[in-house]
Design brief:
There is one protein chain. The chain has 215 residues and is α/β, with parallel strands linked by helices. Helix content is 46%, strand content 13%. It contains ten helices and eight strands. It has helices at residues 17-31, 38-43, 49-57, 61-78, 89-98, 114-120, 143-152, 168-177, 191-196, 206-213, and strands at residues 4-7, 14-15, 84-85, 102-106, 129-131, 161-165, 180-184, 201-203. The strands form two sheets. It has a six-stranded parallel beta sheet, with helices on both faces. Helix 9 (191-196) links the parallel strand 7 (180-184) and strand 8 (201-203). Helix 5 (89-98) runs parallel beside helix 10 (206-213) and helix 7 (143-152) packs across helix 8 (168-177). It is globular.
């Protein structure tokens, strides 16, 4: 049985897509950028905003900063109201906590937003530690967040830790940090993406996640 379980937030704990899509559309309208396809919008769910915005519109510097500022302007006012925890997730947290397992969060969502999201979803109480980046230090490498969380949880044996996530960033981060991973298929990624990047396990629902963790 794994003793330390790290969870990604967007697309793993909660479906935050509505708020992300609406915030992106708000920014696009304000800036006059080309609209994105649904596939392009979905690709924003996971990596830091600067990575997606610079890729789609070729922007950088102050223009990129302004785009992110507008996105966050909308998200701060409305995003928290446009998300929901995935079915079965609360029961999963309860079952794992009751089994004496330490729960952690490792998310690319900035640290000025993450606590608000967890509080709004009423799930802060389940986690021993939450690792999320400063807005100016966002990266597509999640290994540092994973290692930070494990350090604060006083995890000495990394074979006892596992990362649960829906995107390649979660799997790559776990691999680089030297821990196992569970790639979930009901989030924002795909089975092909998770397999390609080397997820240790694949789960299609929270029951399968719990079974893997307690094996």
């Amino acid at each position: 049985m794994y003793k330390y379980v790290l969870f990604d937030l967007d697309g793993t704990i909660a479906d935050t897509s509505e708020g992300v899509f609406n915030a992106t559309d708000y920014m696009i309208k304000k800036q006059g950028y080309r609209e994105l396809s649904i596939k392009e919008k979905r690709s924003i769910l996971g990596p830091p905003l600067w990575l997606s915005f610079s890729k789609f519109w070729g922007i950088e510097g102050k223009e990129l900063d302004r785009a992110i500022e507008l996105y966050r302007e909308y998200y701060a006012a409305n995003g928290l109201k446009q998300m929901k925890v995935y079915d079965g997730t609360i029961q999963l947290f309860e079952n794992l906590k009751n089994a004496g397992i330490t729960l952690l969060v490792a998310t690319s969502k900035p640290n000025h937003v993450t606590p608000q999201v967890l509080d709004y979803l009423d799930i802060t109480k389940y986690f021993t530690y939450v690792a999320s980046p400063n807005p100016e230090n966002e990266s597509d490498d999640k290994s540092s967040l994973i290692l930070d969380a494990l350090k604060h949880a006083n995890c000495k044996d990394f074979s006892e830790a596992i990362m649960v996530g829906d995107r390649l960033y979660d799997i790559n981060g776990a691999n680089k940090a030297g821990i196992d991973s569970i790639g979930i298929t009901y989030g924002f990624g795909s089975m092909e993406e998770l397999v390609e990047h080397g997820a240790t396990f694949i789960a299609h629902n929270t029951i399968e996640i719990e079974r893997i963790i307690k094996k």
